[in-house]
Design goal:
Rossmann fold; alpha/beta; 6-stranded parallel sheet; about 240 residues; 6 strands
Amino acid sequence: MPPTLVLLHALTQDDRAWDMLALDEADAPAVYTPVLPGHGKRPRQPMTLGEIADEIAAATSGPLDLVGVAVGGIVAQHLLVRHPGRVRSAVLACTTGSSKAAAEQILARAAEAEASGMAPLLDALLRRWFTPGAIAANGPGVCYARDRILAIDPAAYADTLRAFAPHDLLEQLPGCTQPVTLVTGAGDEVGRGSQDRLAAYLPRHRRLTLPGAHMLHLERPGPLRGAILSHLTWARKEEAA
């Protein structure tokens, strides 16, 4: 059975986050785009990252190639650790192996969203996630992110922040021997240094730096698409070796 390509979206987003990558059957025979609880049209349902990973594993069959950006990359790590026999490979973009150092700040952001709603957070989130040039251009990716930030239930946003605030899988990652591509955005200030830490723990990885900031799939979908296709070629070669 050929692997299913699982695309794991970032905070506030949904399955439409991947539309600009234009992946099709020529790239992967099957593509699965799960939606996090409380995101898009999915109702709010507080879940742990482990529960989300287990749900994705149960909803699919056969081997998986994972692609996760930001929070999606955190979910991908939980799949790697909890379901190693199912995961053939992973692309981890603009993500972190541990949120513990920033846990208090993340929990404060959750409380702020619940108290004030999402509109007052909009500009700060866009500045965290995109380069100034991308915000000024106001292209489709920025417009989509803005729409999703304003549409999400603040309580669901807070649920997700609280779910990943204690995230720390670094000590378990050395047991993940699957091919992993670590993708860094050259202008990503949110994830600065996080890929270095992941690289120190993952035994079988390679690294790429692409133009763009934290939301590479929205700001620079073309380069990220190329990185994903290159990764899948590498994973196939590694599997055949």
